[in-house]
């Protein structure tokens, strides 16, 4: 069975998705690429043996079986709606839209159409996070009393990106908020937060912080901490620690952990460290595209629906409000 996937956006993320989709050629996947820069689309497509078209209109005219959206955030909602209206299953990078309010019409359209839409919260397809969810759902840890989530970038993205990203909690920690809810099966109901700027003052000048911590409370009273930074010079570090009454488990504590032990004679970790989120989640990104093809073929449901992604954004909004007000903020649903 041949499955034709259209990819919109040939930038850094789009080019990565293109490689992973092209690797599925033996499984019957044909790839068509479009970008606002037609030459860039052709440049990405040529070495992969994929087709390139002039623009998005030409891509939709090809009537692909599925569409992958990897453009800037402002283009997410209009393109999701266009695919849904054409009855085409769609994958889109997070977030669904620039704000929760702008995402609500998308949720309504998806629900009304019964459409299959997968949002790119790739940690749901990371082997470690999947094992943590299985262990929690199986009751192997007992009841959870403490959760600690960390996302630490080795170096910050360009300040131009940060000026429009919505803040550290919205563009970075939203992944932690999503996985905490997904793994535990509970909702985050309130957040308090603090942040600081010790790095490039330009980050503060655009209204962001370079390091932040949130204390979140789940709907069963369990508490969790969520920490993020733009300046983890030791390497890219994403971990999740779950402590329960019966056992504890850590995601991301392997030989690529970006740290070292202070204990004499300790050889762990052996390295090398990850330098980017692309490296840290390489397996998850590959699985993300394989899973989307399965969604298109009707073999499984979306592993992250727009409603779930928007709910994580609601938590991120509460965290940002808490950072700005200094108060504990409820998650508004």
Quick gist of this model?
With 333 residues, this protein is an alpha/beta fold.
CATH architecture of the largest domain: 2-Layer Sandwich
Q: What is the radius of gyration computed over CA atoms, rounded to a whole number of angstroms?
A: 20 Å
Largest sheet: 7 strands, mixed
Which range does the strand content fall in?
15-25%
Q: Secondary-structure element sequence?
A: EHEHEHEHEHEHEHHEHEEEEHHHE
Classified in CATH, the superfamily of the largest domain is Dihydrodipicolinate Reductase, domain 2
Helix content: 25-40%
Tally the beta strands.
13
Q: Which class of secondary structure composition applies to the elements?
A: alpha/beta
CATH class (first level) name of the largest domain: Alpha Beta
* Mean pLDDT level: 97
Question: What spatial order of strands do you see in the largest sheet?
Answer: 12-11-7-10-9-8-13
Named CATH topology of the largest domain:
Dihydrodipicolinate Reductase, domain 2
Shape: globular
Helix count equals 12
- Tally the structural domains: 2
Q: What gap, in angstroms, lies between the N and C termini? A: 42 Å
Report on the structure:
The chain is of the alpha/beta class and 333 residues long. The protein folds into two domains: 3-123 and 285-304, Rossmann fold, CATH 3.40.50; 126-281 and 312-330, 2-Layer Sandwich (Dihydrodipicolinate Reductase, domain 2). Helix content is 38%, strand content 22%. The protein is built from twelve helices and 13 strands. The chain has helices at 12-22, 38-45, 56-61, 76-85, 100-113, 127-137, 159-162, 168-184, 201-205, 277-280, 282-296, 306-325; strands at 3-8, 29-34, 51-52, 66-69, 90-93, 117-120, 144-152, 188-196, 211-218, 223-229, 237-244, 248-251, 329-330. The strands form two sheets. It has a seven-stranded mixed sheet with strand order 12-11-7-10-9-8-13. It has a six-stranded parallel sheet with strand order 3-2-1-4-5-6, with helices on both faces. The protein is globular, with a radius of gyration of 20 Å. The termini are far apart.
